## 1
Amino acid sequence: MRFILKEIEAGNEKVKISVKDKKLIQLLIQDGRASISELSKKIGISKPAVVQKIKSLQDKNILLSPVLYSNVKIEDKPTYFIQISTGLGYNTKENASELLSIEGIAGVLWWNGEYNLSLLVFTENIQELIEKIEKKFEIKKYRLLRAVNNWFHPPYVFSDVPDKDIGFSKNNPKIDELDRKILKILYDDSRKSILEISSELKSAPITIKKRIVEMKKSGAIISFSNYINFWACGREVISILMQIKGRSNLDNTIKKFLSFPQTGNIWELEDEWNLNVILWVSNQKEVNDILEKINREIKGITNSEVYVLASLKGK
């Protein structure tokens, strides 16, 4: 995944959104490559009206960038989360752009919690990157988490569209050089058309379309979605970091979280803290209810931490 986002932060007032706009937003969360024709039929409005609504929601900073979620290393570089406890006075707005100027850092997320800064990083030399960060500001302490697998459930923000059921599966998809080139293009612009990709790669459109379909079946492409301003839509984003003992317990936890409509991203980590789950919720009670069900039904959970997202910026 990649954050191609304007900077957004908590505190944005909830925006009044029409029923048809809610349908459009939820459909794009569930399928960021849905065509204008598909959206028109499902919402029950004309294609020009769909185009106008998309532009209006983008102008209001509600509908943000489309995104590709993949289960293969597109850049052939490991994925890390660096959790940092910063010193006092480190300003989120002033320093996010400075951090993003460091090669390898793709996202800057600020949380309410002990580890108040989290960086999404793609790099082959993590220690060198950490040294570059330390030149920017004082790090009180940090925690390094390497991602080894991920799942995505389209968060259920608006009930005007049925929730999309996502079953738990594990696979190790294989891709060739053409697949990788297609993914790199979609990684930068997941709504780029088949014809545009075909022209760029000098390959037949039917071949490009077939490869995308095959990558969806194999799990190389997890999902196409669309970022939204969750705060403007009345949602908070919660990160739950967990320590779970036992492979079967870990798998059962992932499966259970995928059954909750509030779940977004799930990351399996190569660390003592081996699972990170992102929830989109409307209130604290939802978080408490989910954690109560998880702790009641799943064995092997030895520790957990909960963080609330305050702001984020990506490139």
## 2
Amino acid sequence: MPKLPMGDIGPCVVIWDYDSGNDYCLGRYLGTTALRFTDSVSDVQEEGFGDAPVDAVFAGSVVEFELPMARNTLSELANAIGYGSMGSLAGQVLTFYNMAGCDMYELAKQLLIAPICNNVPDSDPASWTLIFKAHPWRDFELGWDRSGQRVHMCKFKVFPNTDSGYCGDYYQEGLAPGATPITGVCT
């Protein structure tokens, strides 16, 4: 029976700034890690057909990635939701900054998603997903109660890659054999 190279069900490991020598495992998570790809479409209409479109035109694509981080270290949080000028880590204190007027694309990095089995990432690059340009942004609400677990939702805005040779590509499912192995993986 056919299946996707990444498998049909199961958790993953997420590596931020993959293949740079600064690979960061974004740590543990709770809930669904999701890559969302949505095409925008604009309808073409003619008066004689009322509200029914007679054609449609692609108007771009929006891609986002979500990682509900749980039970992480301050260092792991600093590498994701406190990344770059979004915050700072000093000892045991992670401070979050207000962000306004700051460009994201310039600091966007590669994001690698690899399926795991028994806390070990799949070593076959054909099962990996590589996002070319992503930058984190924060969208979380922390609760203090007796039944809920605290989760820092880290979302990534994914940009079309405008580097030479990429022609606006977002990501690829599957990498060629010989891709840089996953290192520094947290469990």
